[in-house]
Amino acid sequence: MTPDVEELLADAHVVRLPLVTRFRGVIEREALLLRGPSGWGEFSPFLEYDDAEASAWLAAAIDAAWGAPTPVLRDAVPVNATLPTVPVDRIREVLERFGEVRTVKVKVADAREGLADDVARVREVRRILGAEGRIRVDANAAWSVDQAERAAHALAPFDLEYLEQPCTTVAELAELRERLRDWQLPIAADESVRKASDPLAVARAGAADLLVVKVQPLGGVARALRIVAEAGLPAVVSSAIDTSVGLAMGARLAAALPELAYDCGLGTAALLAADVTAEPLRPRGGVIAVRAVEPDATLLRQHAAPPERVAWWHERVRRCAALLAASTLTAG
Ligand SMILES: O=C(O)CCC(=O)C1=CC=C[C@@H](O)[C@@H]1C(=O)O
Ligand SMILES: [Mg+2]
């Protein structure tokens, strides 16, 4: 059932949550939460995204709040810690927020820094985790093929689990994968899946060893499951720095995947200084639970975005809903 826009906005709440540290250049996260007959959904495309891109995120929120829930195969999902580009002396404090995790994703290739900063951060994470820990790095498409190859060499002593979206294009990823063939350093595709007009192109080109999948940009759990199945590659479910409502959507996807070989990037409630529920989906013992999340009315009020931002989000929902009505994305 596809609700009309008035139904979508009938029980919608716009929140603005502080982060504990800068991430993607922001220190606050805005999200619109909406309630339908199946529960709560989150609509939180980043502010700079255009309506065409944001409308897939709305389809995911509608799927969560109005759709039939997908059957799940597990009740907990192992997660990684996510380390933003903080100075080395803050690493321990940020990682402690995630509790006991065996895997850390380190953000690298920040435009304000150089490779030496990335190496220093990864070295410190390896020191903290010990030899058994797993470390992956995420360059958010910032490197050229040469830069990525150089970084792979510089980071080799720290035994990386994989390199996430080192370069922008599928062709670049394919070339890098070829150059790293003897290194046994897998390449994960993130932006090449979630921002691509064809999310399967990267798999078809043999340009990645695994996919990072996010429920909102892929248009919902069912659509993400189909993409993973058709790609035929291992998948890591990750958040978009969601509130606990969005993380519950991610946990449902992770819990529905037939195989889950990697820890998922769903521990990010630990990066929020506030959440919409008194029981956030924060990692405990290296996992998050697979369960529904009900926002707390007091917290929704306490973290309500200013009226002009609420109006902005409502308009965005209206425009995206119009786009969805004209497309086939909500058809399943
Ligand atoms: O995967 C994780 O560990 C957490 C999520 C995460 O890193 C991201 C969430 C949202 C936007 C992105 O910049 C970033 C990513 O690229 O994976
Ligand atoms: Mg990424």
UniProtKB/TrEMBL annotation:
Binding-site positions, Mg(2+): 138, 164, 190
Enzyme Commission code(s) on record: 4.2.1.113
Protein's pathway: Quinol/quinone metabolism; menaquinone biosynthesis; Quinol/quinone metabolism; 1,4-dihydroxy-2-naphthoate biosynthesis; 1,4-dihydroxy-2-naphthoate from chorismate: step 4/7
Ranges of residues in domain Mandelate racemase/muconate lactonizing enzyme C-terminal: 88-183
Alphabetically ordered keywords of this record: Lyase, Magnesium, Menaquinone biosynthesis, Metal-binding
Catalytic reaction equation(s): (1R,6R)-6-hydroxy-2-succinyl-cyclohexa-2,4-diene-1-carboxylate = 2-succinylbenzoate + H2O
Cofactor needs: a divalent metal cation
Active site: 107 (proton donor), 214 (proton acceptor)
Superkingdom as given in the UniProt entry: Bacteria
Key word Metal-binding present: yes
PANTHER family in the record: O-SUCCINYLBENZOATE SYNTHASE, O-SUCCINYLBENZOATE SYNTHASE-RELATED
Similarity section: Belongs to the mandelate racemase/muconate lactonizing enzyme family. MenC type 1 subfamily.
Function description: Converts 2-succinyl-6-hydroxy-2,4-cyclohexadiene-1-carboxylate (SHCHC) to 2-succinylbenzoate (OSB).
Name of the protein in its database record: o-succinylbenzoate synthase
Lineage of source species: Bacteria, Bacillati, Actinomycetota, Actinomycetes, Micrococcales
